[in-house]
Design a protein that fits this description.
24 strands, Anthranilate synthase, 12-stranded antiparallel β-sheet, alpha+beta, 30% strand, 12 helices
């Protein structure tokens, strides 16, 4: 049954906000539902594994009513036509777009019920801070690439429930810059028809999950884009900055690439979610490039005006049994160097969140706990605050993007050094992927453990945290280990 009823829907609109229409459908694994509707300009944000606080919901979006992109200050808004806007303030532009459609939220539904969904590249920081831009941009990907979603499928893994959600009248509201003058009676009928059509598409049971999981005969040749001495050299430069008191720590990355030939990006995602299940897994098809991610880390969440950030810093490999796991956890949490680095990052994130929170509401509600993932153990903390009445999601992004765990401390100076030392722009790597809802809710991850696929080339970027006593050779091999672990998943496609 579609809810709310037409009578209730019309009543709610009189109060100035538009409710979504929704219908419950049988709960199935999100990947199996996405497989039935997969198309260009679509996504799945999937909580494959993790505890309830970070891995409760999954979302599938497709056929966006609009697409927002920005590159080097030129924004494109694609709908029935294309608008080109020059701006150095894309967050303000996105906020203006969102304000044309005021949505009423239903508390019984997951927190994303329509809005922006996609990626904010690391290089988006140019619109937040004044930074140099000297590194090479060889992939030429957008600084931000967002779908405006008016139809989606949402999953609650705790309740084992699933809904089709449709937002009536989004395109008309955004194009006309208001909700007045729209026949909401007709829009209700249109949205009901869309829900019925989606249900019919989902009846196509084409689940072939096991077909792709095999040992590939293709040898994956990895192209190392930095030679060993080059990476060691940038580590030495960072250590010099630390010794001079310029910074305390920095995250320096290198990129590797490989040719995937005829391997399908969707099959790569299915392998990755199986081998490395994570709370913030994602597959996004942007048409001319794809994102395949198994990120474990949340950058920012805003839910009912409560802000969370969840930094991960400190890692050990999983043991062969529970006894070895316990030894690794204890060794990690008692390591003075790891603890000092983590505390530094907590202080940075507290400061970022504090800039947009009510005074006195910022607190660390989880301090240096350990969390087990498929291959590693991490030190994790959770910082939260109450969003100030005059602030919104876009202010939170402005205050806290990108994450301190993937830049360093202090953040702005570290980003200047990253631009100086890293030879290519980071692109999506260490940016964020997720949603910004019409209702004011938001959830963004940090893009790590991720493939960026363009044509037949797959890119993987990996970093290491550099501190005063870092050994350049060890840090080089640490990044290789991370990259090769990801590239090896391609052997199973």
């Amino acid at each position: 049954m579609i809810l709310p009823s037409k009578k209730k829907f019309i009543e709610l609109i009189k109060y100035g906000s538009i409710p979504p229409l929704y219908e419950s459908i049988p709960f199935l694994p999100p990947y199996s539902i996405y497989e039935r509707i997969i198309s260009s300009n679509s996504f799945i944000f999937e909580s494959v594994k993790g505890h309830e606080k970070i891995a409760r919901y999954s979302f599938i979006g497709f056929e966006p009513c609009m697409i927002f992109k920005i590159k080097n200050g030129i924004a494109e808004i694609e709908s029935l036509s294309k608008k080109i806007i020059q701006t150095r303030k894309p967050l303000a532009l996105m906020k203006t777009i969102m304000n044309y459609y005021r949505q009423k939220s239903f508390e019984n539904l997951p927190p994303f019920q329509g809005g922006f969904a996609g990626i904010i590249s690391y290089d988006f920081v140019q619109y937040i801070e004044k930074l140099p831009s000297n590194s090479k941009d060889d992939t030429n990907l957008p600084d931000a690439h967002m779908f405006i979603i008016d139809k989606l499928i949402a999953f609650d893994h705790v309740l084992k429930k699933c809904w089709i959600i449709v937002c009536p009248g989004v395109r008309e509201s955004l194009e006309n810059h208001e909700i007045n003058g729209i026949s909401w009676d007709e829009k209700y009928d249109e949205a009901s028809c869309i829900i019925s059509n989606i249900k019919k598409r989902l009846e196509n049971n084409s689940d072939n999950y096991d077909d792709f999981f095999q040992k590939s005969k293709q040898i994956i040749e990895i192209v190392y884009e930095m030679k060993k001495y080059q990476y060691m050299d940038i580590v030495k430069h960072a250590k010099n900055y630390i010794a001079a008191g310029d910074i305390f720590q920095a995250n320096l990355s290198q990129r590797v690439s490989a040719c995937i030939k005829d391997k399908k990006p969707w099959n790569i995602y299915k392998v990755l979610r199986s081998i490395n299940p994570s709370p913030f897994a994602a597959f996004v098809d942007f048409g001319n490039y794809k994102i395949v991610s198994s990120s474990p880390e949340r950058l920012l969440r805003v839910k009912d005006r409560n802000i969370d950030t969840r930094p991960i810093a400190g890692t050990r490999p999983r043991g062969r049994d529970t006894g070895e796991d316990e030894f690794m956890r204890e060794e990690l949490i008692l390591n003075e160097k790891e603890r000092a680095e983590h505390i530094m990052l907590i202080d940075l994130e507290r400061n970022d969140i504090g800039r947009v929170s009510d005074y006195g509401t910022v607190r660390v509600d989880e301090l240096m706990i350990t969390e087990d993932y498929s291959h590693v153990i991490h030190i994790v903390s959770n910082i939260n605050g109450r969003l100030s009445p005059d602030k919104d999601c876009f202010d939170v992004i402005r205050a806290a993007f990108p994450g301190g765990t993937i830049t360093g401390v202090p953040k702005v100076r570290c980003m200047e050094i990253i631009d100086e030392l890293e030879p290519v722009k980071r692109g999506p790597y260490t940016g964020s992927l997720g949603y910004i809802s019409f209702t004011g809710n938001m959830d963004l991850n940090i893009i790590i453990r991720t493939f960026v696929i363009k044509g037949e080339t797959v890119y993987v970027q990996v970093g290491a945290g550099i501190v005063a006593d870092s050994d350049p050779e060890r840090e080089y091999h640490e990044t290789l280990k991370k990259a090769e672990a990801l590239i090896r998943t391609l052997q199973h496609v």
